[in-house]
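Collaboration report, partner site 2.

Our partner group contributed sequences for two proteins of shared interest, and the home lab folded both. The records are reproduced in the order in which they were received, starting with the first partner submission.
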Amino acid sequence: MRIDHFYEYWPIIDRPDVEWPGGKRLAVYIGLNIEHYETGKPSVGILDKAAGRDPDPINEGWRDYGNRVGLWRITELFDRFGIRPSVLLNSDVCKYYPRIIEEGVRRNWSWVAHGRNNVMPGSKAPQLRMEEERHYIHDVLATIQAATGKACKGWLSPLGLNQTYDTIDLLAEEGVTYVLDWSADDQPFPLKTFHGEIISVPYSLEINDLSLFLNRGVTGPEFGQMITDQFDVLQRDARRISRVMAIGINPFIIGQPYRFKYFEQALTYLSRQKDVWFTTSDEISAWYMLNYYHTHVQKLREAEMVQRFY
């Protein structure tokens, strides 16, 4: 039974430096959420008053636009810039949208497990017992591996599955090496676990179209400016201490034409910058685990910060 936090407080100014491949100082990746929403069940929507309807053509149709149209607009953009997204994938997508999986495999997308589907608001998700959660995680990972031919090394919890105090250990047992759930840092950092080795890789709830457009009323031009502003500051900071920049997007939101225009402009700006590692969350995790994980854990131990885990 875990009785303390999932990771130690370790301010970024106190850590040994991290250097990305080729001496790069800033790593940038795009987290592309590709999800399935079961019909007749409420979830994120454009019109809350209709969320209780069954069927709900307003909200369900709005979300379906992402997988039917918006995703392919984004895919063309990624192809143009040679971007491999980190696909945050509901395993149900493998069943209901095999064409997406086919095109992603052809493009060598990076696959990150994102639970089974996204139908339930997280605040109402029931707490799973350990064996139920173990079975859930195993089923999600096995389904994605069977469809894509690759085992997922990363995990982002879906709306319908809150983390429990067992989640990190259960993921590590299954061979998952990183999670995106903890948006607590600009660098990867070790997580405490009873079994195996697992880290947090930065993800962003700030530079994320879902939270910004639906919850804060941000406009397309504002979102594009936020991406470039985030990049400029992180690139400046990275001259002293290396960083990771994550951009979270959803096809049914940023794939809308009037928003997409400004996302395209922002990526054009980023693509022109030098000394940046445009990569995936998988590659960030693998590089950190190979070159820095054990050194960082040892530093924590030497500081007597870690007593029970790792």
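Second partner submission, folded after the first:
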Amino acid sequence: MRDAEFFRRWMTAAAAAVEREADRLTELDSPIGDADHGSNLLRGFTAVLAALDAEAPAAPGEVLQLAGRTLISTVGGASGPLYGTLLRRTGKALGEASEVSDAELRKALYAGVAAVAQLGGAAPGDKTMLDALVPGVAALGTSYGAAGDAAEQGAVATAPMQARKGRASYLGERSIGHQDPGATSSALLLRALADVAVSDGALSDGGAA
């Protein structure tokens, strides 16, 4: 079972990954976006950690809902609403329970991903964060490590795609050949989840089927 501390560690690991990869995310965003994806997410996740320290939510769902609200209020462009919706909707689906199972987390993440798809009007293959999130969450049924791997592979697979949604879609065929920054940062989020789960012990990586 996963308690609030597990989810705090997930957000802390995600923030560390964003800080480490911020320059790369911005570099990926430069040719097909506004060249601010890394800096925006870094600001947002820094604020998330501060909010979690200040409020100390006691339930997993509360951790993610607070993180989502913070991202919406601090991250500019489309990233704030999309990431905020992912975490808020996942947190809402987890409810007020003090502990949640891996299966409950997987089900809640599906709800979060569906909310992102609805908000952005996108689907896998459109060269967006969904190209990492959808296969990543699906692979949670195998293991947390598999989820991280699938998300990373999904992000890499966006490079030959032509963007059909978001800022990059305005470029048409010129978006081909560039890895999507949103998919890349989404893969960081799921890899951070996998790393925290594995750090809890080998038995924790048995999948969220």
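Feedback sent to the partner group on the second submission included the following. The mean pLDDT is 92. The CA atoms of residues 82 and 116 lie 6 Å apart.
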